[in-house]
Amino acid sequence: MPNSTRPARLAALALLMAGTAQAREPATADTILTNARIYTVDKKQPWAQSVAIKDGRIVAVGPAVAVAKTKGPATKIVDLGGRLVLPAFGDAHAHPLFGALSKTRCSLHDGKSIDDYKRIIAKCVADTPGDGTVYGVGWEDSLFPPNGVPNKAILDAISTTRPLIFDSVGGHTNWVNSKALELAGITRGTPDPVNGTIDRDPATGEPVGSLQESAQALVAKLIPPPSDTDYQNSILYTARLFNSLGIVAWNDAGVDFDDQGGSRMVDAYKAVKDAGKLTTYVSVSLKWKNERGMDQLPSLMKAAERANALGVPTHTVKFYVDGVIPQKTAYMLAPYEGSSERGTPQIAPAMLDQAVIATDARGMHAFLHAIGDGGVRISLDAIEAARKANGKKPTYHMVTHLNVVDPADQPRFGKLDTYAQFQPTWSSWYPYMELTEAAIGKKRMEYIYPAGSIVRAGGKLAYGADWPVATANPIEGLEVAITRRTAGDPDAKPLVASEGISLAEAIESHTLNVAVVNGMAKFTGSIETGKNADLVVLDKDIFKLPAHEISKAKVLVTLFQGKPVYGDLKRLER
Fold it and tell me: 315: helix, coil or strand?
């Protein structure tokens, strides 16, 4: 090297090294949460003491001494006094608009008996002047043994002059009075629609006042539709509720769209987001119309393109493959107990294969509602067909509910890189389980919600409560996922205890795995440098509690992109 150029090159090298060193220095934090037990759900660094936040993002996480290097003159230090910090929870399966509307109309969710329903409905009728429809949601199948079918006579005793229509908590059955049947033109001679059943008196053939699956469409015109404002208020209601439970991400599992690709539900999300009031990440699953065929694909793709352009992420198609077990509309591999019925797929297997192959080919994820073991099998068959037809693609398909999964199908989740999407608290619904056992028998009850078996066979779980069908509380769900029994009750009988999973597995299934299937893993779901500061602070360390006490823990603070959307960090300082 010539002497004349050596000093210049050395100076340039020194500047480069200084710049590199400066680039490696962490940014000065706005806030540091310290003196905490931070469970990161990051396998490279599962535990930490401190996390530093700047402009809503995590700029450092690790030991307190290392994170302290991000402290500047204006950095706010919050001493958490050893409290547990987790990634904020996500939910892979919720019905935020339906759920909130069901709570704000004539809600039956708090009813615990038929007498409760009578009292609630009578009050709704009295409080709603005129002669229009009184509509509500939330009755439990288990209160109408042996098969979850309610009778119109109960509603007729309240009113025969105006239509009364009530959706079951799961949304698969309408309970209606005689006036609703009359106005809808449903008589003894009305044929069952495709994929639906008008429940009838076995002796007379008269409709009894219960409409299953697609038969609900026969009375849909009698139900007043929600307004745009109703939809927007529903999103705000659900966001407040979910934030209070530590949730900052959800997938709306079944959004309608029209033939031009428009969707009032997507428009409502955009309006709330544009107003700066959306305190959660949202993705939406477009609902496959079972009454249509592949002709709907162009409008579905147009709806997805439009939603994404509006800033409402859409990468999933929701398929309703079968129904529910007590009413024998879930599709089973073998007949129901004492019956020749097996249920019927809501989508023909050949059509399902074709639709999932097309969905996968376009880079979208299939999200399949399957409750019976037959429904699960044809769902997995469709995903396998897509994998074979399209090769390996970065698509995260998911089967939800999985009430019964045949042992032969349990390893297929791992082999097909398909997520099993359970509602953890469902395995503590004992009245519903009694109806289920009566329908499918003891042997198949051994394969009910087989979360542990699927994980042990190499599969992955992603949790979603299916709210409002079940509580949205993730902490209660974590406990039941581990214990398989009613939350807070150590004496309750577990439902196939061997199907429980570990606390770490349950947390991952309610955080990082949800972020993956919701298309959000790059920026949320774990506590890692570079991701958004989406965190929850709990009042109890659930890793130190007995399993049956986990549900006692409460969320103190929920941070969404570094800002409290529930609780107050100031009150936690010590």
Answer: strand
- What is the CB neighbour count within 10 angstroms for residue 132? 12
The stretch 394-405 carries a mean pLDDT of: 96
Pairing outcome for strands 57-62 and 50-54: antiparallel
Q: Which tokens go with 290?
A: 């079972």
What global pTM score does this model have? 0.86
CA 153/CA 175 separation, integer angstroms: 11
Mean per-residue pLDDT, 476-484: 97
Determine the 3-state secondary structure of 531 from DSSP: coil
Between 141-155, 311-325, 343-357, the lowest mean confidence (pLDDT) is in 141-155
For the chain, helix, strand, coil in percent to 5 are 35, 20, 40
pLDDT given for residue 26 in this prediction: 65
Q: Which residue has the tokens 């044809």?
A: 378
Place of tokens 């005689």: 178
pLDDT computed for residue 24 by the predictor: 54
What are the residues facing 566 on neighbouring strands? 558
DSSP-assigned letter for residue 515: H
Spatial distance between the Cα atoms of 60 and 29, rounded to a whole number of angstroms: 9
Which residues are CB-contacts of 254 (< 8 A; sequence separation ≥ 6)?
A: 95, 285, 287, 318, 320
Report how far residue 411's alpha carbon sits from residue 423's, in angstroms, rounded to the nearest whole number.
19
Quick one: which of 478, 36, 429, 501 has its CA closest to 246? 478
First to last CA, the chain: 60
Tens of pLDDT, residues 225-257: 888 999 999 999 999 999 999 999 999 999 999
Residues 173, 179, 185, 189: is their CA dihedral positive or negative? positive
Burial (0-12, 13-18, 19+ Cβ within 10 Å), 530: exposed
pLDDT at 22 over 50: no
- Domains, in order of start, for the chain: 6-82 (2.30.40.10), 94-222 (3.10.310.70), 248-471+511-525 (3.20.20.140)
Query: What is the Cα–Cα distance from 257 to 265, expressed in whole angstroms?
Result: 8
What pLDDT, on a 0 to 100 scale, did the predictor assign at position 4? 43
> Residue 475 and residue 315: Cα distance in Å, rounded?
28
Q: Give the mean pLDDT of 106-118.
A: 92
